[in-house]
Amino acid sequence: MAQEKLSNLKLDLSDYGQGQATISPDYYNENLIPVPKAMKNWNWINYSTIWAGMSHNVVAFELAGLLTFQYGAPLALFIIGFAYGTLLIALYLNGHIGAKWGIPYPVAVRPMFGLKGSSLPVIMRAAVALFWFAVQTYVGGTLIDAVISVFYPSWESLTANILGMPAHLAISFFIFWFLNVIVLFRGMNEVKNFELIAGPLIVVTLGGLFAYGIERAHGLGPLFTVTGSATPAEIGLSIASMAGVWATLVLNIPDFTRFSKSQKDQLIGQAIGLPIVVTLFSFIAVGITSTMSYIYHIPSSEALKYVNPVNIMYLFTGNQFLVLITGLSLVIATVSVNVAANIVSPVYDLIALFPRKLKTWSVSAIVAAIVALFYVPQLWYNNASTIFNLLNIIGAGLGAIAGIMIADYWIMRKTNLSLVDLFMPRGQYWYSEGINWKAILVLAVAFGIPIIGFAIPSLSPLYDYGWYLSVAVSLLLYLALNKVKKY
Tell me, which fold does domain 44-380 have in CATH? Predict the structure, then answer.
């Protein structure tokens, strides 16, 4: 009887000019259907503040710091600005589908991959989002560890190995992981209230530290004298790697833009948020790192020890109170970013993969948080080369999906969709038993080409431009296989 009742689900699409329809329960969940127009109330300020919140990102700070150690401030800023500026184009193009049709990413890829085939890009994105959750959790643990070490130097004497970490770091790691779990149970409203204080506090403390460093260096000029050497291939790899930092959001953005009042709101908000606000935070990170390198003559071989902002604050000031304020602000902000940016997407993905079993946000979120532990970031994060290689590989995989989405939605479908067919077996997006094998093939080829470049040194240029190359290859190949068919 329950199954009979489920087989007659009504979907009201009148807000989108497509009337009402009866759909199958197999691909339905209330979190996946187009949001009513009454819920599309986000304006450009909302999107700008979301990016402002996500810019308080310790991993982004540390990556900017590593680039500064490797290349110097001028080139590091160019790499960051170029990567984030070009990502804005893809963010707008993929954000359009959410703003126009009110659907999240797991549904937005159904027209390209098929109702069943969409599980592959959904799983890929979920895996990457959980990767970032694991990374942010580990880095958050290092923040707690650094603060405790400043107040209690004997804390670092807890050196027993626990899961590949000294005991003091392992305890800090699980404290931070548990803070995330608490937020998952209590909801985001409370942590967002903390972020209203923590966000500006981070800008004030790190901005103040930057100003203090400039004063000690006697102006900005000396900071830009610290330079490094780089080949065009190394610069290309670094740009592609930095693109990989936000490659998940390029796919994930419909999860947020589905609530946008208009296309103009999501475009303006993101144009302010990513290339301006996030780059500004990176500028502060680059400036602080360059100041530290100039004043203390720290070699690049020691970079990973000196890109933690808590350690930098203590090195510059020796003030425990400022260290505590910086550490607590960053911990609160990192929890907020970790939950908002890294759990929202896999929760939608898990619900899309198991719509009948994982029906609530909280259950899916807890499952995601537990699965993330298996990424064991403590075993590889402390190697700068490994970090940038992982970012580039991630960017290549997600870039292949982004290219297919852009080609199908913008060029072939001219931004038109049949919403009812997004939930109906045997409908327009069913293809071959629910799978569009052309899209699967394009994804494999576009992702595989950079991987070949990674595996074969003589073909390394294929790898150096990971995200950008995979976007271009997937877009062009998808159009070629479909002969630019228009729907």
Answer: Hydantoin permease (1.10.4160)
Instruction: Give the orientation angle of helix 167-186 with respect to helix 320-342, to 10 degrees.
Output: 50
Cβ neighbours of 212 (radius 10 Å): 15
pTM, rounded to two decimals: 0.85
Of 64, 58, 248, nearest to 138 (Cα)?
A: 58
Query: H or E stretch including 162?
Result: strand 161-162
377 to each of 121, 133, 137, 162, how far by Cα in Å?
A: 23, 10, 9, 13
Residue type, 214: I
Alpha-carbon separation of residue 473 from 17, 240, 377, 401 (angstroms): 35, 15, 31, 11
pLDDT digits (tens, 9 = 90+) for 109-161: 999 999 999 999 988 988 888 888 898 899 899 989 999 998 999 999 999 99
Q: Give the angle 131-137-140 at the CA atoms, nearest 5°.
A: 140
Give the other-Cβ count within 10 Å of 355's Cβ.
Answer: 18
CB 246 within 8 A of CB 467: no
**Structure tokens, 187:** 């909801």
At 9, list the tokens: 């689900």
Q: What kind and span of H or E run contains 369?
A: helix 361-372
